Structure formats: structure tokens, C-alpha cells
Amino acid sequence: MSELTLPTARRRPLDPPDEVMELREQASIHRMTYADGHHGWLVTGYAAARAVLAHPAFSNRPENLHSPIRSRAELAAKEDFRVPPGFFLRMDEPEHARFRKLLTGQFTVRRMKTLEPRIEEYVAACLDRMEAAGGPVDLVEMFALPIPSLVICELLGVPYEDRAEFQADTKVLTNLEVKAEDAVAALGRVSAYLYGLIGRKREKPGDDLLSGLIEGGELNDEELTGVAFLLLVAGFETTANMLGLGTYALLTNPAQLALMRDDPSLVDNGVEELLRHLTIIHIGPMRAALEDVEIEGVTIKAGETVTIHLPAANRDPSRFPDAGRLDVTRPAGGHLTFGHGIHQCLGQQLARAEMRIAYPALLRRLPGLRLAVTPEEVPMRSDMSIYGVHRLPVTW
After folding, report:
1. End-to-end Cα separation, the chain, in angstroms
2. Residue 352 belongs to what domain range?
3. pLDDT tens for each residue of 259-297
4. What average pLDDT does range 37-45 have in this prediction?
5. pLDDT per position as a tens digit, 321-358
6. Looking at the domain assignment, is residue 6 inside a domain?
7. Are the beta carbons of 135 and 396 closer than 8 angstroms?
């Protein structure tokens, strides 16, 4: 691959970049030159992606990685861009396990079941506001973003009225075109806010996840800040984009929308298929080899970075027949959207619960839901580290 940066622009908004899909047809693993000149690898095949993600000889620590995106490489080189110590997504074992085990019990299927009535309340309230406003409205602003934000704020004990600040800073941090100094400032503001919140909870704990971690006594305030940062941002940013982009996908595939709306037995399958077909994590994950590793006959040498292209892997026809077609009746499961291995998404059951409730509620409450602009006029998030729609003007 000759480009110095990984392509993110798409000719068709719901499909991965053509250049990447063409590479996957040739092989599962490809040489790639990174933004800083590093010679590493791009993985586009499903089996190879799973193998890398599961292999213990691959590191997720940022100091071992090179970025395929120029702005990210420049940001990583900034001495003052440092995530808080508890940001366990960027840790290897055994350090990663120390943090993960403290949180695993908070995100079980059973725990998510207990949250479903609250999710249903939030969804209904958002739909009430949409109906009261009358179309056209921006579905992102009025539905897709508020629902996961309300849920994760309640779960963590973050005041929802503070959302404007951390949502704005998250938008800066996930922008692939942001200036390094702006990203450093945004990171500093979110970290300072959460550090202050941890201090207040230490003095006056509540009935929430962060208060429980404080009372557990195993993490200091800096580590708690890192945990809070990861859970807060991941807790609303990913699901919000799935709700927005998923609705766009259904509105532009009316037969699939009708199946999701009219057949409750298809909702679980439909959510998994939207997760697979859309794959909003469109850059990475990345790993660095700690020793020479052979994957599908290719030797990845110690020190080399591997970028896994999840959208391409989730469209691999060797794993998903007719992989390019959105089909909500497809048997669920097997996709890599939530990752694989020890870093598999901790909050995946929460995300599933939110989508299983939100999609059918939206489609049934507003059966005439449709785009208020042409599909081509919907602004896509090719410029962000998490794919989706910037706005989704709809009416009904």
C-alpha cells in the first residue's frame, strides 16, 4: 500500500473504502507505510484479525505503536498529551487485568437487564421531545446522542447537566483533523473535570459505579480519572454513532427497516447485523508485535505495528456470505465490532441493550420516519476516529 495514511473517505457511505476492500480481495495481510515512515502491516481478513487480537505477543501500549493517521502520529509525539493512568484500554497484561477485573461485574448481561427500564424511559422521553418539536429535526441531537449520554452519566454518577463540555471536548479528541494543541487542551479539560468529580465523590459518595470504585479503595484518584475518562467517552460516543448511522442505514434500506419495525423477533439479529455491516470503529485497533509472530504465513517482526481494519474484516465473505449486503435476518454474532481477546469491549452488553430498545421504539413511534434531505446531503464522519453521521435531518 503506497499511501502514507490509511484511507477513510468512502465512495459509498455505508461501505468501507474501495482501496481497502480491493486489498482484502488480494490477501488478508498487507505491508503498509505508516504516517511517520514506519513499515508495518494492515490486516483486512477476518481470521487474521482474530488471530492478531487474540495473540499474547501483541502489545496495545501506546509507546509501542505507530499511527496510520498523520494527525494521530503528531499527537502521540506530544509530550504533554498523556491520558490518565487508569486508561486501561491502552495497557497490556497483567496491568490491564488489574483494572478490568474491578469493572467486569458492573457490565454483566444481568446488570444491563436491570438498566433496561431506565433506558426505556430515556428513549420514550427523547421521542416525546421529538414529537413535540415536530419535524424536521436532527436525530443525532434529539435521539442518538442523548440516550447513551443519559445512561452512562447515570451509571457512572456524572451530572448530565455537565454534558455540553465533555461532549464538545470529545468531539475535538476524536477529530482526525484537529490540531495537536487543541487535542491536548481538550484532554486536559476532560481530565481536570473528572479528577474534580472524583474528589467530590470521595467526600460525598453516591449510588453509582465511580463511588463504588472509590469505596473499593484499590485505585488512586489519577487511576480513577483514567477509568472514568474511558468509560464516559466510550459509553456515549460509540453507541450514539451506531444509533445515528444505523438509522441512516435503515432509512436508505426500507425493506430492512420494515423487517426491524414489524417483526420483534428480528431485533436482536438486526442489531448484530447493523454492528457488523456498519463497523463504526473504522481505524484500528492497532497492535505492536513484542516478538516475531507468524500469522497466515506472514512473519510480523518484533516492533512492527499492525493496524486491523475492522470494517473490511467484518465484510470478509469467507466468514459472512454475501457480506456486502445488509440483512437483518442474517444469523447473529461472530462480528469483530466489539473487538476480540482480552480487550473486547467491556460495555458491549450496555450498547446492545440501548440499541435493542431504541431502534424499534423509534421506528414504531414514528412509522413515517424518513430523511428530510437526500441521502447524499447527510454529512458523514469520515473525518472522525469513530464513523457515523454528524447530523441526520429527519421528518415523519
Report:
1. 45
2. 18-395
3. 999 999 999 999 999 999 999 999 989 999 999 999 999
4. 94
5. 999 999 999 987 799 999 999 999 999 999 999 999 99
6. no
7. yes
**307 domain-assigned:** yes
d(CA 43, CA 55): 14
Other CB atoms within 10 Å distance of the CB of residue 363: 19
Is 66 inside any structural domain? yes
- List the one residue out of 333, 305, 304, 149 whose CA is nearest residue 237: 149
How far is residue 218 from each of residues 86, 146, 156, 312, measured CA to CA in Å? 12, 32, 17, 40
Give the count of alpha carbons within 13 A of 77, CB side only.
Answer: 12
d(CA 371, CA 362): 14
pLDDT attached to residue 5: 56
For 292, half-sphere exposure in the C-beta direction (CA atoms, 13 angstrom radius) is 3
Establish whether the linkage from the previous residue to 285 is cis, with ω within 30° of 0.
yes
Report DSSP letters for 67-122, one per residue. -SSHHHHHHHT-TT----TT-GGG--TTHHHHHHHHHHGGG-HHHHHHHHHHHHHH
> How many structural domains are present in the chain?
1
Q: Are 349 and 204 in contact (CB under 8 A)?
A: no
Give the pLDDT mean for 109-124. 91
Does some domain include residue 11? no
Q: Which amino acid is at 128?
A: D
The three grid cell numbers given for residue 1, joined into one nine-digit string? 500500500
Place of cell 454474532: 333
Q: Indicate the pLDDT class of residue 3, thresholds 50, 70 and 90.
A: very low
CB 247 within 8 A of CB 362: yes
What CATH number is attached to the domain comprising 333? 1.10.630.10
Length of the chain: 396
Q: What contacts 78, CB < 8 A, 6 or more positions away? A: 180, 184
Q: Report the distance separating Cα 351 and Cα 166, nearest Å.
A: 20
